[in-house]
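From the pipeline queue, job 12 of 40. The input is one protein chain; the requested action is below.

Action: predict structure.
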Amino acid sequence: METLPRKEEVDDVSKAVKALEDTKAGIQGLVDTGIVKLPPFFFMSPEVLNDHPTLTDPHLRTDFQVPIIDLNGVLDPAHQKKIVEKMRSASEEWGFFQVVNHGIPQHVLKEAVDGVRRFHEQPREVKTTYYGRTGMVRYYTNYGLKSKGVSWIDTLACVMAPNPTPEKYPFACRDIFMEYSKHVQSLGEVILGLLSEALGLDPDHLKDIGCSEGYAFHCQYYPACPEPDRTLGVGRHRDPDFFTILVQNQILGLQVLHRDHWIDICPMEGAVIVNIGDLLQLISNDKFKSVDHRVLATSVGPRVSLACLFTTDLQPSDKVYGPIKELLSPNNPALYKGTTIPNYLKTYVSKPGNGLSVLKL
């Protein structure tokens, strides 16, 4: 990789980062060169890596285990009431939960993850045709190549709704993305209905105001890292959407911040992970919580995941989202002003990256 940073550039992070970006080969391209040490521009400070203690064995504390919600029997009114209550509790206290018996066939989940891996493990010359940070289909390294330390992640992002463009999706994953999209949209609408009821609203309320109008796949690839204790796969952040549905392979790494501890979300065969995004926290007036999470770099890999972000971020819109009026009262006044999604995203991408919620800025 002829354009990798030269030795004299190592201390100049901006030059080193630009050199990595210019290769268009991603983290995997760097790994393919046979590195055994992490380039210094990936180094993150101890304050970033260890900002909170990690609970090493959450199984010892049931109150530190990410909730698991079983959707079996969701059409039975008596059972649905229990599911709604569990989802309400999880959304208020954790902002994260795992879902089983969700209706997506296991072979579809597996093939979706395999499709992500197929794309990222293609030859460099195939992937670079998609390299960039804008558009309906884009492949890029890191989330912003920030100078405080580059995260150990490659991403393929594909806008799947409301206007899918299958002819633009990479051949390596096109068919399974179209198949998975149908299933995840159906599951997303079920979850929105349950979340609506958990807020005390009509089951169609969140869908009717546009929370499922658009969604995009963010397909993450984390190669094995030579020095995983010096960087992160993805740094501390909250999702800029209404909610996210994520499927992953069986390699540990995802952590959620709960009661000032980092908690591992252990992979469960056949389960999907759901987390609340900033926009749902905003419209629920803080009833549901968007919480910090991150992904560790690991010495084994690749770690592969597919996150479906329900948002309309690539659709030009002047629609204003604010706290839902049915949730407000003299004792529960609006905590946020209304905002358009483009304006919210401008704030999100410019935030300092110190764990401060963009909703508070």
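Job complete. The domain at 7-360 is CATH 2.60.120.330 (Jelly Rolls).
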